[in-house]
Amino acid sequence: MRPGMSEKEKLSYAKHIGVSLRKVYDTDANLLEEELDSRILEHERARREQRLWVVALLSGVAAILSAVAAWVAAAQSPTPPTKNPISVPRCEIITADQGGRTFLLDNGEGRVWDLVEQTDVRGDPEIWRIVHRFDSDGDFIDWAIDRFKPEAREQLIQKLKDQREALRKKEGPLNEEINATQPNQPK
């Protein structure tokens, strides 16, 4: 209800919103304005509270639906892998069927050891010897060179350089012939 409404406007508004008009007139058929105002305000307050209950109910339903959706999503998503799963031990011993060799595998770091008999020690004890893994020829060459004594290492490096130079000299005339037969090739 807006302030400054006339009696006629208040009666029309009251009928429109469904306010009961019983006993709003006195015995002389005069409008009891305070009673009408009170009923209109009470009706408007009740409508606001009803709307708040609807909003609260919808909010509760939305919260429940959100919780169910999160629970379903969590149940469907795969569990993240753990660093050291309980089902796989950190190290395991593997025996090869052919040759009877035994290996120790470190599942955490991917290293492998071979169980070998140390024949140059009294009693011929068995020891775990690391198995080196080479991902490229360069890795193997670096590993092999590190195994030589410093003097032998320098000789090996010089021998590799000489072989490379000899290979370049050997391929040199062939490369010049190829370049000469191909037109518009920079030399």
Sketch the topology as an H/E string, one letter per element: HHEEEEHH
Percent of residues in β-strands: 5-15%
Alpha-carbon Rg, integer:
47 Å
Averaged pLDDT, please?
79
Determine the N-to-C terminus distance: 97 Å
Query: What is the helix tally?
Result: 4
Helix content: 40-55%
What is the total tally of β strands? Answer: 4
Neighbour order of strands in the largest sheet: 1-2-3-4
Unreliable sequence segments: none
| Total domains | 3
Major sheet size, sense and barrel closure: 4 strands, antiparallel
Structural class: alpha+beta
- Using the alpha-carbon principal axes, give the shape: rod-shaped
Question: Can I get a quick summary?
Answer:
With 187 residues, the protein is of the alpha+beta class. Helices cover 52% and strands 12% of the residues.
Provide the descriptors you would attach to this structure in a database record.
4 strands, rod-shaped, 12% strand, four-stranded antiparallel beta sheet, single chain, 187 residues, alpha+beta
